[in-house]
Backbone:
């Protein structure tokens, strides 16, 4: 079956498929491993109300703690996402706790330089 016929058959079955472009990294974290895929091909299929992600690419296995994570200060469901590296940078530059750094980053709309300036100005 050629790709066009496959697409038509999926459409008849109510399955939508789209390519997700610009993906830089996918991390699958288990209890004792992290699978890191750099620049994978990712497709999203929606079938019967379920989202199905297909990820294709080369991967490497690392320790879960070796993989950088992001912090979502808005809690579950989105909002501002602050990379762990930004929190660590603010902590290193100001000597505050991670919680204080995260709060300053929230106030600075995720901008590390602004958060550092904000924290430094509070010390004076």
Residues:
């Amino acid at each position: 079956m050629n790709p066009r016929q496959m697409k038509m058959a999926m459409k008849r079955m109510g399955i939508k498929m789209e390519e997700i472009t610009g993906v830089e990294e996918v991390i699958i974290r288990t209890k004792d491993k992290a699978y890191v895929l750099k620049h994978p091909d990712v497709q999203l299929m929606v079938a019967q109300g379920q989202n199905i992600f297909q990820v294709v690419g080369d991967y490497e296995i690392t320790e879960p703690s070796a993989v950088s994570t992001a912090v979502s200060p808005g809690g579950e469901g989105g909002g501002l996402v602050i990379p762990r590296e930004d929190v660590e940078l603010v902590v290193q530059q100001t000597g505050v706790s991670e919680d204080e750094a995260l709060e300053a980053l929230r106030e600075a709309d995720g901008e590390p330089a602004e958060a550092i300036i904000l924290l430094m100005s509070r010390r004076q």
Remarks:
- The first helix runs from residue 3 to 12.
- The CA atoms of residues 2 and 122 lie 64 Å apart.
- The chain has a mean pLDDT of 85.
- DSSP finds four helices and eight strands in the chain.
